[in-house]
Amino acid sequence: MRWSHGYLLLCLLCASLLAKHLIPLLPYASFSWPPLHIYLALLSYIVSLAILGAFLPGKQQQGTLLADGTRLKYKCNGLVVTGVVITTLAISAYYGYIDATWVADNHAHLFIATNVFAFVLSAYLFVKGRLCTPPNWLKQRSMLHDFVMGCELNPFILGVDVKFFSYRPSMCGWLIVNLSFLVKQYDTLRFITGRMMLYQITTAWYIWDYFVHETKMVSTWDIIAEHFGLMLVWGDYVFIVFGFSVQNLFLLSDTRPLSYVSVALIVGSFCVGFAIFRGANSQKHQFKTNPKALIWGKTPITVGGRLLASGFWGMARHMNYSGDLLLALSFCLPCGSRSSVAYFYFIYLLLLTVHREKRDDERCSLKYKSIWDDYCRQVPYRMLPFIY
Ligand code: NDP
């Protein structure tokens, strides 16, 4: 099964509809189409990000070698773009030009509008991709496959690399949703709960870290291997923004104090998760750009000179996924045990990473052949030493 995001999400949505912990999600129960201004706000946000991305300065990063022997160049200015957007919104809210709780208040409508946008964009990419695909290739692929999984690896619209760009509205959007709920909680309770504070700090750090290390994105699976269709479009525009932030709905009115043990658990899983996640991803990126650079102070051990078997990559073949899972857990734990739906992000990421690890294993096995087999013998664990 290759449509990982789509299928997993459908299963999880069905499961959550059956769950009895859905009270905070009640606004979603009464469906109504969003008014025009919601669509306009959404489009303005996306277009502003594209314009800022085009004009603001940023480090140029070369992408991996493509099938036609060329490499794309990526302008990595996501941090400055997000900084400008958040600062502008904050100043506008402070002076009363916009309402800081607008996103939280219109969450359900924004969710629907973003879904519409994702389907329209996917349809456009589908038509565009099919039109420029050689006819003999078209026969080998179904229309549904192309719509969901995408036709093109790196589609461009008006000079914008849409796949690389789409992480910006998603990660920046996640931050905006969080901040809007933060203000809403303060407006309602006149204070910020410890749970909300922990959720906000950990997720803001994760988003900030993503943009700081944006240059490393160019060697990730999504960029090098995944075509851009509904699966990624929906994942970026809808799922990250609304799925990853679902905890807000539970935290908004949850005033229960946190025990010291809970705080230690949340902070501990965040710190350990972050060290593994960032450490593993940085080691791989460093190895790809400078194979001789020291890993944990030692000369890196390699398999066939092409695969890293030192540091986190010598402990398990995808420690970066385990680190990310611990981080995801730390984002959900502030919600406590009241609702399983609040653990949606962690459960989703667990299924995604286990499934993706298998797909990556197949891809690497085809690409590296016997070198990959040697690596698997040398590093037998997939994601967690001695466990999996
Ligand atoms: P990886 O960054 O692990 O990339 C996998 C690729 O790395 C392989 O295809 C191979 O590509 C290369 N590689 C694998 N093993 C080695 C090795 N030992 N030495 C050198 N190169 C190796 O996977 P992803 O792109 O999936 O994930 C990147 C990060 O993004 C992860 O931390 C993940 O947790 C996170 N992520 C988060 C998601 C979320 O929703 N929060 C969703 C998906 C990912 P090559 O052909 O270049 O050698």
From TrEMBL:
Main location: membrane
Keyword annotations of the record: Lipid biosynthesis, Lipid metabolism, Membrane, NADP, Oxidoreductase, Signal, Steroid biosynthesis, Steroid metabolism, Sterol biosynthesis, Sterol metabolism, Transmembrane, Transmembrane helix
Cellular compartment(s): Membrane
Annotated signal sequence range: 1-19
Gene Ontology MF annotations: Delta14-sterol reductase activity
Bilayer topology term: Multi-pass membrane protein
Keyword Signal among record annotations: yes
Transmembrane residue ranges: 35-56, 76-96, 108-127, 188-208, 228-246, 258-281, 325-351
GO cellular component: endoplasmic reticulum membrane
Enzymatic class: oxidoreductase
Protein's pathway: Steroid biosynthesis
Enzyme Commission designation: 1.3.1.70
Example GO biological process: sterol biosynthetic process
Family: Belongs to the ERG4/ERG24 family.
PANTHER family found in the cross-reference section: DELTA(14)-STEROL REDUCTASE, DELTA(14)-STEROL REDUCTASE TM7SF2
Name under which the protein is recorded: Delta(14)-sterol reductase
Organism lineage: Eukaryota, Rhodophyta, Florideophyceae, Rhodymeniophycidae, Gracilariales
